[in-house]
Structures
1.
Amino acid sequence: MEFCNLTPFDTLCYGALDPNDDEHQVIAMKVGYRLARQAGGSWQAQVIDDDPVPLCVGDEFWAEPGESSVRQESDLAPFKPKCDVLVIGQAYAPGGRAAAQWETRLRVSVLQARPPASVYYEPKAQWQPGRQRYVNRPEAMRTTAKALQDKEEKVLLDKRLWILAPHAFRRHLLAPGWKRTPAQPITELPLRWEHAFGGTSIVRDAADPDAGPLLNEVCFSNPLGCGWMEKRDPRASRNARQQDGCEIAAPQIVPPGEPLPAPIVAAHPEGPCDAMRMAELAQAYGAMPAGYGPLGRAWAPRLAQAGTYDDAWLQSRHPGLPRDIDFHYWNGAPADQQVPYLPPDFCLEAWNLTPHATTGGYVRVVMPGHRPFLLMRMASGVMLPLPMITDTAILDTEAMTLTLTHRAWLPAGTPAIRALEARFEVDPAAPLLKRAPSRPSALQEA
């Protein structure tokens, strides 16, 4: 099969295996849009076709891999059951004025035809045998047409998070429990998991710093964050002294409501835990990390979706996928940011997630309805259009861009394809398959 990219966008055709070891072809295309402010304060998505956004072929991190938040994940996933809606960048205090806390919000919606509860209408004439369908037919057609034209908004995602200024939990020598330190107002905060609930408990031997740690435990749901410690951590002891480090940073990105009054102290069993056990322990913490960005692949509960990699897999399946893999593993967004595949004309709104150039910290953009698709030129001579789905949307609040990853699959057993063409239709009303203009005959030319 010949693959040809007829778009200005970065597009790749690659193979992937399913759990049955059947190879299928995957086509991924990445399209970027600049969010340009228009007169009156509205925003418009303008496609970036002069300097296309490249596909991400490997996970990218903000700093050291594994020791910092993921900036974006590889686009070369074999399949995503849902669409990831993600935000990278920063949150901004309203009006650019330093604040101790403020609310952020992300909302995605679509307009869809309102399904008529019924096309019943009140007949204008009494029932007449043999003539009723003709007497009321115009009224019936008008009622049905109106029902199809009416559209209603369907909200796919509406998420709010609070941003808190830096503060800490401090255990005083005389007062029982933990106290929150005063917050220092800020104007912006990076949207990274380092500022959300999570953390590590690492204790080294003061007499031999080069030796292995005496305690090395991490929060299974977010090892990068703050506000968590393991119960064997000396900081969790009631006898801990202030000069010995009885202060721990508090999360700054939190769900709406009361923030944590004290650090979460969790009890981990000694010895290794499998992915399912890690997910159970993380669920029992009593708090979950909050954020808008991609989760780590090795974090709970996402890791449990990757399947079982044990001795049996090593002997009979390696390097293939485990039989029990859940393809939701490839969705890296928080669960409440995984939505059905987005239509070409979805609407995205954000509050206090964009720079001060936005009016009141608010931006709303309706996508222009562009449609990526594949034209399959079958070996039989038939031509078939295959629409691509949108399974990743990333709002970059610093660059003020929105990038979309589109994908399509050709499962094993697909009839022979002579050529596969990646195309991009910018007219929302145009058919994907157009008839070529006919040439005038010699008689017409004469």
2.
Amino acid sequence: MDSKMRFSGRVDNYVKYRPAYAREFIDYLVKDVGVSSGAVVADVGAGTGIFTKQLADKVKTIYAVEPNANMRAACIDYCQGYDSVLAVNGSAEDTALPDQSVDFITAAQAFHWFDADKTKKEFQRIVKPNGKVILVWNTRDSSNNFIKEHNELCSKLCPDYKGISENAEKCNAFFRKGQYDYRIFENNSILSLESYIGNTLSASYALNKKDKNFRTFIDSLTAVFEKYSINGKILLLNNTHSYVGEV
């Protein structure tokens, strides 16, 4: 399946249940990276606008570049009231933005879907001299027993599940001279059964209602949750990982 269409049937769950990025990460971008009220940003692969909205009141303009029409519509709705947000029908490889038009390029939970070589050329085209690229992911703590069992379940029942990939090697090849500033920020969340299942179903690899094993998948997720939850809640250990550099 074309990566640009993978989330078409998952928009509602994505909007409701995907977490934002750590507040300390946003503070770091403002205090240390230089994101400011005069900045122009391209948020590439903006999806439903989770990260776009977190930056919307921190910058002058943020282009929410998103190729999937359903995701882009959700982003426009989610970011209503922010005049700084401009939705753009574009992709990482073809953003539709002018040459040297942005101070920063961001990609939140998205870079792994891009064609790295084509994206690098496009980012070099649209970013201003000395502009920065910010790649960020929310990543679960895979050493945690609950998350281990969750991952094993997805590996068993979801044919499209590929496991957790490391980003360091890709970033070494992507950033200029392999140089970037890498930071980790704690971003834990507390989930109910509903939000745990909704979050899982927002993933690109998750089964949907049309799949033969969907009911088994939901029952298995419920069993894992009930095994580890306390009073109907579970602490999801999660970190925001960021990579900031030039291309």
3.
Amino acid sequence: FSAVLTSAYTALSLYIATQLVYAPQQPLYATPAFFGMQFHRITFPSREDHVQLRGWFIPGVLPGGHLTAQRTIIMVHGDRTNRADQGAGLLKLSVAFAQHGFAVLAFDMRGAGESAPAPLSLGYFEQRDMLGAVDFLRSGPPPYPELGRPHVIAGWGVSLGAVTLLLAAAKEPAIRALVSDSGYPDFASILEREVPKRGHLPPLFTPGALLAAQALYGINFYDVRPVDTVARIAPRPIFFIHGDKDSFNPSTNMFVLATAARSAPDAHVQTWLVPGADHAQSFNTAGQQYVTRVTDFYNLALGPDTGKVSGS
């Protein structure tokens, strides 16, 4: 009888692990052209494991209508969405950044949108996608050759995208400034809640499902801990944003991350608790105030656009 129970536990753990790491890839609802913006479609590999990723490069628009790629922001979406995520307003925000003179690289992480199918790992592998975007900007074919390469690269991420960005920036100094919106210090508490929900089974199956994910897909979810590495980002500036009504990831987690980031002696950290905003809804809630505060942060962190083109 015990062998039957063990077999059943193992089978159900494998089932939950598969539910955790695979999800239908959501189609894009629109492109930047919907907002009257120029853009090019791009394809590039992730760093290390070379998963093929797809995205858009949207040049920034300067006063007078001139285009620029000098200051480029890499946009990183949340879990089980894509680069045009309507729920968090990603496409609209990307366009707003471009209209304020920042070029934007918006891409789909592995297993999402138009990118290659791959297991979802809550940032464990996705950080390689962010690093691949940096590599593309530094050494790939420039989407607009006449605009050259970026002088500076920054990042913006929401929810899982914020975690992915924080993990990547701790390894990659080329990411010069970061906005982390609705990020997590670690995934332990989230996993304990979400694994049973996604598998429709009791919590006792959570340890087995996480072991199965590691055995089958090489994913150690408990290693996804930006709180342990965020201090390495200093002295590069970080702007943490969180909704005070976040029902999924408590706003106290923003302060956990900010405290860890400030433990570096040369840290430059800002925080903003957005009144009335639920999870990943700070832009939708604060609107133009969000755009103003974030672009002010990037302008201060990255400096002005000089109007000069970098060589390719």
4.
Amino acid sequence: MRIRDVMSTNVVAVDEKTSIHDARKIMEAHKIRRLPVMKKDKLVGYLTERMLLEASPSPATALSIHELHYLLAKMTVKEIMVKKPFTISPDMPPEEAMQLGQEMGYGGFPVVENGKLVGVVTESDIVRLMARVLG
């Protein structure tokens, strides 16, 4: 078994100029917690739901709701994304990816082959595979 056997290939990604507000809407609509960030056809970053939450103002802010919406509409994912994200190969064994994720504190990775984003794999994908294999 290899990562290519468990990764999601219908990747939802955003452009680096996407607003934080729009990125959050995309994540909610697709029920995902991670987004690869692209510039043209090149992976330039990775964004997580946690990063979006950390970039959002706290409920105790002195800004009005209109000011908050304005700021979130202007701020782009490029400003908060992980630049040059760690990627894995589709030929990596799933158990190696799982170990890497645990060591690095990552719940998922973009999968890149020949410089092109070909998928995304998460801990959940690997756990589902292990459950199938173990029966």
